[in-house]
Amino acid sequence: LQLHRSGRYRCEGWVRNMVSRWSMSKKVSVTVHRVPLPGVSLSAQPPGGQVALGDCLVLSCAVTTGTGPLSFPWHREGSGAPLDTSPHLELRHIGDNDSSQYQCRVSDGDSVAESDPLNVTVLSEWDPWTG
After folding, report:
1. In the chain, what are the domains?
2. Where does the Ig-like domain lie (predicted)?
């Protein structure tokens, strides 16, 4: 069922018994409810959110159920506007300034569920001359 299918319904048709006749049932109300969004899971590749300077990090957001369409606004600690609204956030050519907490939210238009924040750590190469 889809949300727009809520409404009043009846059935009608020919009833054959002693006298055949066209008959209609009483109307019944049908209400389709949204499935509430369950907990949101956030995963990272490479796992743990630790990534080498210059590499790529892919964050993925998932829910077990929900009625669509769903949007996945991604947020970075201290940033106002969403970074993206797809289930996957790809950060290419990671720099030192990408170290932060990232979080995805899932919205079905009526309700919003949030993931736990994920700490992303950019690992710089160790230089024996500078320590």
Report:
1. 40-123 (2.60.40.10)
2. 38-121
Strand locations in 25-99 (E): 28-30, 40-45, 50-52, 57-63, 74-76, 88-91
Q: Which residues of the chain have pLDDT under 70?
A: 1-3, 33-38, 65-68, 125-131
User: What integer pLDDT is reported at residue 69 of this predicted model?
Assistant: 77
Pairing of strands 74-76, 7-9: unpaired
Q: List the structure tokens of 81.
A: 């506007």
Return the pLDDT at 90: 93
Compute, in degrees rounded to 10, the torsion defined by CA atoms 44, 86, 113, 82. 90
Q: What is the dihedral of CA 76, 77, 79, 85, to 10 degrees?
A: 30
Q: Give, as one character, the DSSP assignment of residue 46.
A: S
Q: Record the tokens describing residue 110, joined without a space.
A: 């009526």
Question: What was the pLDDT predicted at 5?
Answer: 78
User: From the CB of residue 103, how many other CB atoms can be counted at a distance below 10 Å?
Assistant: 18
- Token look-up 């409404």 returns 7
